[in-house]
Amino acid sequence: MKRITTYSRRMRGALAVFVTMAALVLSASPAEASGTYSGRAYIYGGGTWVGDWGDEGDLSTSTNTYSNATCLWQKILWADGLLSASDIDGIYGSKTKAQTLYWQEMNELSDLDGIAGKETFGKADDSLYRISQDSDGNITLQYIGIYYKPYFIREADGNYGFYDGTNTYRLAGYNYRTCS
């Protein structure tokens, strides 16, 4: 009898954990539940700048394909010699996917899928260095690439921006493309 009671308690405990987990998953928005998007409109950081990009949304041939966030990612690939400056167009096409996969292999990531997601952005974040902070709270960061060292700006509100090929400042948004 004691054995059955212990077993019943364990089963009830396991059931309670399962129900709690299911409720959490169902209460999350679809984007949060899928784990593919931070839910923010821009590449974003908060608190200290270290680790800002480790929770970014996916960029791929099917997700956020045409975006300024893709331009920012292409600048990383360019800095490491994997894209030319003319390839930075904000379109996550087959070349960007192939070079992202190569970048993932070079950096020994476990996600070898050609998608710039949390792990990939998080690894790129490791090569960001703070250059300065202005009186408004905007932080200038530099990515130390193999060939180039582009600058990125984390605005005081946490949104990231960059200068495109025409030296025009752009916010790194997920849902629009204005970069060139």
Q: How far apart lie the N and C ends?
A: 73 Å
Which percent range fits the helix content?
A: 25-40%
- Outline type: globular
Q: Report the total helices.
A: 5
Radius of gyration: 20 Å
User: Main β-sheet, in a few words?
Assistant: 5 strands, antiparallel
Calculate the mean pLDDT score and round it. 84
What's the CATH architecture name of the largest domain? Orthogonal Bundle
**Structural class of the secondary elements?**
alpha+beta
- What do we call the CATH topology of the largest domain? Muramoyl-pentapeptide Carboxypeptidase, domain 1
Element layout with pairings:
Layout: H1 2-27, H2 30-34, H3 68-79, H4 94-106, H5 118-125, E1 128-133, E2 139-143, E3 151-154, E4 160-163, E5 169-171
Antiparallel strand pairs: 1-2, 2-3, 3-4, 4-5
Walk me through the structure:
This protein has 180 residues and is of the alpha+beta class. It has two domains: 2-28; 52-171, PGBD-like superfamily/PGBD (Muramoyl-pentapeptide Carboxypeptidase, domain 1). 36% of the residues lie in helices and 12% in strands. It contains five helices and five strands; from the N terminus they run αααααβββββ. It has helices spanning 2-27, 30-34, 68-79, 94-106, 118-125; strands spanning 128-133, 139-143, 151-154, 160-163, 169-171. A five-stranded antiparallel β-sheet has the order 1-2-3-4-5, covered by helices on one side. Strand 1 (128-133) and strand 2 (139-143) form a beta hairpin. The longest helix is centred in the N-terminal third of the chain and has 26 residues, at 2-27. The protein is globular, with a radius of gyration of 20 Å.
